[in-house]
Amino acid sequence: QVQLLESGGGLVQAGASLGLSCTASGSTASHFGMAWFRQAPGEERVFVAAMSWAGGKSYYADSVKGRFTISRDNAKKTVYLQMSTLKPEDTGVYYCFTTGGGYWGQGTQVTVSS
């Protein structure tokens, strides 16, 4: 069993920056990719960003390219999402996901006011 704990959400104004973190614990796989998804009210959960185990490859949704940066610290089993130039459409619950077993975190709310 793997637990993912996200933190760092909050309420910010458009144009601001915010950082999220997600730490894995429990029986994690030896090597696993990690990703962020988000879900806006009344909408489906969508992909935001992902990073490979070694950190050599990262992937982003077109809507966040150039504004969001994903990074990870494998020693801490933690993945980060640095968000800048936030827009109201970035509002939603942000979920952490690991490919090592397909586990989800409980989510953290990000609200961007205009």
What can you see in these coordinates?
By secondary structure, the chain is mainly β. It is 0% helix and 54% strand. It has strands at residues 2-7, 10-13, 18-26, 34-39, 45-51, 58-60, 68-73, 78-83, 92-98, 103-104, 108-113. The strands form 2 sheets. Strands 2, 4, 5, 6, 9, 10 and 11 form a 7-stranded mixed beta sheet that branches. The protein has a 4-stranded antiparallel beta sheet with strand order 1-3-8-7, with no helix packed on it.
Q: Which characteristics define this entry?
A:
four-stranded antiparallel sheet; 114 residues; seven-stranded mixed sheet; globular; mainly beta; single chain
Question: Tell me about the biggest sheet?
Answer: 7 strands, mixed
Strand segment count: 11
Helix coverage percent:
under 10%
Give the C-alpha Rg. 13 Å
Task: Provide mean pLDDT, rounded.
Answer: 93
Record the SSE blueprint.
Elements: E1 2-7, E2 10-13, E3 18-26, E4 34-39, E5 45-51, E6 58-60, E7 68-73, E8 78-83, E9 92-98, E10 103-104, E11 108-113
Parallel strand pairs: 2-11
Antiparallel strand pairs: 1-3, 3-8, 4-5, 4-9, 5-6, 7-8, 9-10, 9-11
